[in-house]
Amino acid sequence: MSTGADRPQGAIPAPVHWAHRHLLDVDALTRPEIDLVMRTTDEMRDVLARPIPKVPALRGVAVTILFYEASTRTRVSFEVAAKNLSADVVNIAAASSSVSKGESLVDTVRTIEALGADMLVMRHPASGAPYLAAEVFGGSVLNGGDGWHAHPSQALLDLYTIRSRLPGGSLEGRKIVILGDVLHSRVARSNVWTLTAMGADLWICGPTTLLRGFEAWAAHGAAGRRFTVTSDVDAALRDADVVMALRIQKERMASGLLPSLREYAARYGLTKARLRAANPDCVVMHPGPMNEGVEIAADVAVDPRSVITTQVTNGVAVRMALLYLLAGARHAEGGS
Amino acid sequence: MTGRRIMAAEDIRRATIRISHEIVEKHAGTDGLVLVGIQRRGVPLAHRIAEAIREHEGAAIPVGALDITFYRDDLSLVAQQPIVKGTEIGFDINGTTIVLVDDVLYTGRTIRAAMDALIDYGRPQAIRLAVLVDRGHRELPIRADHVGKNVPTSREEVVKVALEETDGEDAVEIERRPGTTGGGAVA
User: Fold this and answer.
1) For the whole model, what pTM was predicted?
2) Do A15 and B83 touch (CB under 8 A)?
């Protein structure tokens, strides 16, 4: 069903060895490994376009989805992805589990393993929680978002979406802007790794109070990577090829970081007027959920340049690719 | 290529042309006939057979490519996930007679996976199988309808097919598997 013509890359590059048992953050991935995820995602998109969008690749593999935080798209996206690969899926919402009786994360993970789980997709409000889970869990751990730290599957689906929209699929030298509450954003932190690794000219923009820590990262931690931090929204948007608006996380907003949401919307909200400074076919993204009228204007969200719903669709394909690749590594370590 | 040569370029050319005639004869024409090559070397073989049919029948036969990676039954046995090479079937397979094309028929597991994959795309009238080399040792009740060359082998041997399109030359060779444990490979 695919012709290959719409794909970013032409010839099949040399195979890459995928050695990861867990996916905790994208900082562990090399550029060829990221390319392998992108290529495998192409195949998963072909599977999704079939009359029967289901393949038996993970038949008999038990995937447990454990979420300690509210989520619609990520949780459902992982569930749909696992089911499309014929895995058996168990969903656990922490609020309705023994976690509410005081069970520790380690005990919960051990219990899930004893119940037969091969792969664990987890989201947790504490940064680093999946690293602890990976120490005790015998199978594969996929980080579905931990605190402010990382959201690797979101960064990879953002990268996939950007590549499919840029001519030639190359991010090299392209100006990509992440605009909004980067301080509380695991999406921003993971995106910094992948986007700079692929050669993008990355700009991080928001009110100074929400940029804390990023200046130091840009100055010291990004050797050979282009990475600019600014609170000047006009400078950031000038000639931008991609703008990614991030949600103002009201639930994480300690008092004092922002005077008011209205002031934020007036000074940093992504509006059609502000977008005029960007490249005319600038790609507009948002990882969701959106506060329309705050970080992004309602008419921008549904503008033809917006790929927000494409991000959701690509999310399923990227997560299928990740589950597929990690399942292989699990067998390799387990000695079949 | 370092093994014992069992087919040279000319033998492969003749076998391909003979198979193309057999396919048309068995189907009594070319109506509703499509070819699907199994990735990787089945794909250029399918194109060669289609080209031969075009030459002697004057009919253009649709050719597709099928990747069976997601349908393999040995994913839990291999060391890492195989690289997926892409399925391209740009036509409706409902009601067609599909000739699956592959380079080597061995255990039959690849063909089992290919049939599962095809049936996810629709309901063909019939599925047939054409292979360049049948080396025996079937593990499933599967046989080929059209065979380029039957080659008796032992399980300790490897049959290597090289094609101009994928390997730069046309040849089939046979060699001993180094440090062999027998079976395992899907070929």
Assistant:
1) 0.85
2) yes
